[in-house]
Structure formats: C-alpha cells, structure tokens
Fold this sequence. Notes:
The complex is a heterodimer. Chain A is an all-alpha fold. Chain A is built from 17 helices and 4 strands. Chain A has a single domain (29-256, 271-547), classed as Cytochrome C Oxidase, Chain A, CATH 1.20.210. In chain A, the strands form 2 sheets. Chain A has a two-stranded antiparallel ribbon. In chain A, helix 6 packs antiparallel against helix 7 and helix 11 runs antiparallel to helix 14. Chain A starts with 9 loop residues before the first helix and ends in a 59-residue tail after the last helix. By secondary structure, chain B is an all-alpha fold. Chain B has one domain: Cytochrome c oxidase, subunit III, four-helix bundle (Four Helix Bundle (Hemerythrin (Met), subunit A)). Helices cover 79% and strands 0% of the residues of chain B. Chain B is built from 7 helices and no strands. Chain B has helices at 17-46, 53-56, 59-84, 88-118, 127-154, 160-163, 165-195. Chain B is elongated. The relative contact order of chain B is 0.16. The model of chain B has no long low-confidence stretch (mean pLDDT 96). At the A-B interface, helix 1, helix 6, helix 7 and helix 8 of A face helix 1 and helix 5 of B.
Amino acid sequence: MEHATAVHPPVAHHVEHAPELGFWWKYVFSTDHKVIGIQYAITGLLFLLFGFTLMAIMRWQLAYPGQPVPVIGAWLGAGNASGGVILPEFYNQLGAMHGTIMVFMGVVPLAVGGFGNFVMPLQIGAPDMAFPRINMASYWAYFVGGVVMLASFFVPGGAANSGWTSYVPLAVTATTGQTWWLLGMVFLITSSLLGSLNFIVTIFQLRAPGLTFMRLPIFVWMQLVTAYLLLLAFPPLEAAAILQLMDRVAGTSFFLPSGLVVSGQVVQISGGGNPLLWQHLFWFLAHPEVYVLILPGMGIVAEVLANNIRKPLWGYKPIVYSVVFLGFMSFVVWAHHMFLTGMGTTMSAFFQTTTMIISIPSVIILTSLFLSLWGASIRFTTPMLFALAFLPMFGIGGLTGLPLGLAPTDIHLHDTYYVIGHFHYVVAPGTLFALFAGIYYWFPKATGRYMNDLLGKIHFWGSFVAINIVFFPMFIQGLAGMNRRLYDGGIQYAHAQETAKLHVPMGYATFALWFFQLFFIVNFFWSIKKGRQAPQNAWDATTLEWSAPSPPPHGNFPEPPVVYRDPYEYSVPGHPADFTPQFQSDKKA
Amino acid sequence: MDIPYTVTARPDTGLFNGKLGIWLFLASEVMLFGALFSSYVLLRVGAETWPRGETILNVWMAFLNTVVLISSSVTMVLAWAALKTNQFQKSRWLLISTFLLATVFLVVKYFEYTEKFSHGLLPSTNTFLAIYFTLTGLHGLHVVGGMIVMAYLFGPGAKMFRIAPERFTNRVEITGLYWHFVDLVWIFLFPVLYLL
C-alpha cells in the first residue's frame, strides 16, 4: 500500500491553502484541532473559576451561617440572598450547579476537549483530527450547553437545585431550572459523543507510520480509554434525561411512584414509576465518568513524570493493560453509589466485589508511577511539582474510597462530608493538579514561550497548602457524622457541634486558594507575550509533539513524522543526549 | 492539509475514517436505545398491571410500517450498489424512493398518534403509553434525521459524485449503515410494544 501522504491528489492541497482565513474562521469557527483545543481549555478554565467562586460563596455560608456575604453579597439578588444572607433555596442551587459545572463543563472539557484535542493528534503525528468539522461542532454544542446552564440562573426559581445527581422524585417536582439543566445536559452529552468518536477514529486511523499501539504515549492510551467511556456511558444518561424531561414536561411517571405525596398533597399522576431507575441510569454514566475525570490527568502525569525523571517509565505495559481493564470494569461498579437504597444484599455483595476488583488496576498504575521515581535524578520544574503532588493526593483520594466501596462501612459514611473529601481529593488536588501540570508543560508548545517559573512555584505551593486545609478536615467532619448538603453546615445537629468549627479555617483556606489562582491567571496572560522563548523541543522530551514547530501551523508537521522507537527512551546508554526522541532514526543517532 | 484515509481504507484497520466513525456512533446509539429498552423491562416487571400492546395500539398499521421500513432498507442498499457500478441516476432514484418510503412511515405514524390523542390516550395516561410515545417518538426523530441526510445526498450534495465519486459512494454507504440501524430499532420496537 501507498504511504499515508501519497494517497491524496495534490489538487486538494492547493484548495485548502489558497485563501488566508479571516479572524472569525481562524480563531472562532476554526476546524484546526489546536484552536479548538485552546477554545475548549479556556472555556473550561473560565467555568472552573466560576464553579469555584460558587463554592467560595457556599464556604462563607458554612463558616458563618446567617451572616451577609461580604463584597458580592449585595449583587446576588434579593430572591437569592436577602440582605446578602444566603437563602437555603439559593444554597441548593449553588451546590447543584457547582457540581454540574465542575464535572461536565470544567474538568472534562479541559481534560478531554482541551488537552485531548491539542496534544493527542500531535502525539500520534496526525495533521489534525479525523473529522475537523465534527470537532468544531463538538465545541459549539458544549458552548451552547454551557450557555443554557448559565442562563438557568435567571429563570423563575433559579437554577437546578436538586444536586448534581438530580435524584428523583425531587428533581421532577423542582422548579423550572431543572428543565434547563436537562436541556443543557442534552447539549453537553451531544458534544461529548461527537468528541469521543472523533478521538477514537483519530487514534486508530491517523497514527504516524511506525507508531504501533505499544509505542503510544501513555497520555494517548488514557485518552483512548476515556473516549470509549464517554462514547458508551453517556447515552444511558441521555436516555435518563429524556425520561426525566418527559416526566417534567409531558406529565409521564417514569420516575414517580403511585401515591406520591408532595407538601402534604397527593400528586395527580398516573404513577407506577420507579425512582431507583433514575439512580441506576445516572450512575451507569456517572461511575465511568469518575474515570473520565481521572484518566486524562493520569496520562498527563505520566508524560510529565517521564520527562522529568529522565528515564523510561517503570511498567509501561502494566499501565496500559491496567487502564484497558479498568475501562471495562468501570461499567460494572455503578451501584456502589446505591448501597443505602435498599436494593438488597445480593446486589450489594456483587457491586462491592467489583468495586474492590477495580481498585487493583488503579493501584497498579499509581504504583508504577511511584516506582518510576526510584533512583531518578529528578528535575523539579513547575509542571513536575504539580505532577509529583498528584501522586500522594490521588493516593489519599483513592484509598479513602475503599471504605465507601464496602457496604458495611458505607452505611455509616454515606452522604457525609467524608464522601466529599474522598472525591475532591481525587478530582481537585488530583486531576486539577495534573491539569495544571499539563498547562505548564505544553504551554511552550502552544505559544512558543515558557510560563514564568517563580509565579508557577508560588501558585503550586500556595495551592498545595490551601487545598489540603480545605479538604482534609472533611474526613474528620464526615467520620463525626456531619451530612453534606446542609446549608448551615450542620450546626443544628448535636453531633456536628464540635466539627462544625472546622468550617472556619476551611473557609479561609478556600479564599487563600482563590487568591493563589491569581498567580496562575497573571502568569498565563503575561507569558503569552512576555514569557521566555522556548525552543521547539522545550523540555528535551521524546514524544512526537516536540517535533512540530511551536506553535504548530495548521496541519502540524512540515514533514509527516515517522516513528522509530518507544515513547520514553530517556538516558539510553551509549547515546550522546539523555533523550532519544521517537522521531529520531537510528541512522541520525 | 489533508486528512489521511478519508476515502481509502487504512491497511492495518481495513476501514476509512467515516466507516469507523459511523460504527462507533451506532455503538453509542445501541447504548441509548439499550438503556431505554432496559428501563422498559424494569418498569414492566415492577408494574402491577401492564396492558398488552394490541389492546391499545393498532397492530396492522405497525405491521404496514414494518414492511415499509424494511423495503426502504432494501432501496437504500440498492442505491449504494448502483453507485458501486457507476449508475448515478439509478442510485439517485433509489435514494429518493428510500426518502419517500420514510415519509410513508412518518405519515402512518402521524395517523397512529392522532388516533391515540383523539381518544384521550396521552403519555401521561399510563406508563405503557409513556414508554410507547417516548420510544417511538425518539425513533421517529432518528427517521427524520436520516431523511435530512438523504435529501442532502440526492439534492445539493449529489454534485460531489462528479468531483469525488468514491467519496460520495462512501457517504451513501455510511448513510445506509445508519438507516439499517434505524430499521433495526423499529424491528425491536414493533414486537416489544405492539405484540408482547
């Protein structure tokens, strides 16, 4: 067969390059995977900041219940916060939207839409994604979904207020915001469907010559498994959203049982529905979604780690096999979120067994990454600090999950702050730190300039200390029995009296955390124009993205790259340099 | 800049990009309808009473629609086969026939729906009708989606055949794969809703 590049007639080549694209087509309605990746990343970062700010408002209310929110309290609206004091209904909106925004509009779009789009095609030596226009459609579907979600704050009754899980029957009888939430989710699900099939096709079809599957960088493997999870796990949530939408709009009773009583009134419905059905459909998505949140982060950490330990990653194959196995297993663990629903001990036994099994591949991956550090001469760059911090932080998040995966201990811990602490350790100092590592690491590829190291280190150390003060006390509060979703932080309960005091330092740490993000924001914009110039291979790395110019032009590689070796050939004995890139042939070396 | 393998198959996967893409899309669709069918099963086994479909719905209309939709799958695959042998006009007429058969399906469905509505049978009446309207409605949307693509292929999109015949043939093939899936969903829906 012909070589990949020789297949196409040169005629189409001219058509593609002839007109210089105007601003709108170049930066807004672009089909270039790098521009779309940056659009995704910046939109995702803005949503992260917004979702974090919602949380900061909630943290004030938890630390000082009933006291007016300083500075922005007056702008929250009398219907939400009378005299600046958060009303319970508004607190519920903040909680539901914080979760929704962080998961579906912040972390996933940044990790998959942003990093996946920007880095993955470069790492496999492709000129672009397989379907550039579908790629653009994916971003705009996400954008519309985001706008619908934000607009829902302004409808009567405010935004969705039934938690990010939208449990029924509460969500069916909730205010109009819930309908907007469902519509927004339909857009976000469409976006991830379009994105994920594009990713899979790109990885299968557009790998450079010589880049076999066992030579793929770990990051690409992680994106591949993530794309499968998005492709196959999101449709059941779409089904669930359609059914809930029918319940709300067309008056059906898919999730409403017979004889449902709301506010002392028997609701006039046909009944016969099953509230547990929603939870099954929701968690069938939302457990794989947990891995969607973590796998791209692990991939970034693997890349940054390999680059800064200057030796091959320990256990490439075990990591790959583990992540594939983990992908399959993640579809059969969902009901460990439902031990308290009374679904029966047989079901609980099954799901706690699968849950214990799925922890094995995660531990293998984390252990391989830890062992990679052994005997290394580590370069402590800013991305490396974030990547190193990921390991123990994700470790804490993962290990505290085990008691939640076992039914007997989960009965005590369910719906307490312990759960909040657990998954935030996975996603916040875990995934978010990995994403920051990725931003510092690939920034020179996107802009041709390094980010400032000093500001980066202040950002890291400040965030690292503050984020632990925010999340660690949650384990203590949870073990003491403090429930989540209480708008006054639990002061009305006797058993929460002692640990409720912890909300005050947690609140201060939240504002400190917010403050330290300013160093990142300033650094980000300052470095685009004024950062130190970076060479093409900014970190002396081995993977293919570093063989493209910085920033790469439309089409990425001036010459289609060819791959000669494994992804992490650092410090190969007998070589002059301590890194041998994948694109370097033996003849040149 | 050109994307490799948009027209020809990559040797080691044996597929061109669009074909792999549509199969992945269909896998996702299987999960969507699979979740809805599973919900149907769960709701039905949990119900105290569940009407037999034929006591409420019109089996003969649905049978007619089954025949119509299967015929449309045949004309669809013939349209692709005609392109493979370079008979563009024949293929175009076969695509138009597929489109018309899909229209017949929707018209029959329209009469079925209005008959139910006129008897006061709405999604809110009971859970059987709720799942009936949801599943057939979603399937109907898929039919409409397929019709839009077909209209593009025999309408403004047809001119691609002159510039890039192979690529156009691939587009018809991909549309066909999607259309067979829509047909297949109906073949599941018909016995589940009308006969069981």
